[in-house]
Amino acid sequence: MSPTVAVLGTGIMGSGMVRSLLRAGLEVTVWNRSTDKAKALADDGATVADSAAAAVRGADVVLTMLFDADAVADTMGPVLPEMGPDAVWAQCSTVGVDGTDRLAGLAAEHGVAFLDTPVVGTKQPAEKGELVVLVSGPPDAADQAAPVFEAIGSQTRRVGDDPGSASRLKLVVNAWLATVVNGVAQSVALAGDLGLDPQLFLDAISGQALDSPYAQLKGSGMVDGDFAPSFALDGVLKDAGLIREAAGTAGTGTGLLDAMIEKLRQASSDGHGEQDAAAVVEAYRAR
Length: 287
Prior knowledge:
Pfam families: NAD_binding_11 (PF14833), NAD_binding_2 (PF03446). Helices cover 53% and strands 13% of the residues.
């Protein structure tokens, strides 16, 4: 029997995940603090709840996709008593190492099975059900939630039996993502400042070992000035802070992270925070 699913948080990522769940034939109830974002999913077949508590009642799997650990804790803390004794909480938001420990502890206080399940991918993979789902937590809970992961992702990577391992891996992945975005931004800005057409840079690396689909995607947005968000710059900035925190605890050098965070902060303070991360290019251009 297919699990019933509650999705709390229907922003760029959450809404795409909901549509993927519905395409897979799962029964989905949604909630979002901004109700308009949730109501838009009713036309796709989702049931829209008027509260987070109403959304989680009767759900077999509760999926959270919110901005940070505080938002998740504020949402889930009051509603955990509403979850059934066999329900599973799959926490997909990127909240870092300490945030995951905090949320796992909150779940344990209420006797709720907790899975640490951040996802790799942005807007388009979420819409297409092609995310990579990183999972750590009790194997029986992971088995129960497996149909949910199969609906939202093309791959499920089981990282460990204890919550936290998946979030650590997500930070590693997002460190690379931030490096690619900032590296492409610097080269696109440099090309323009040297009097070149920045498209020449993307053409020069196309199909070479230096190339990647993500570099071309973000680079094209930078060249065209198209910053429609698939991963908002402020989200990358938040994640970069979590990565630096984890790296500092682990003793890993943070020089590159420090430089990237400086540019992300500059772009955010210049008004690009809600735009796509590609907008960081504006912080690299000559002034």
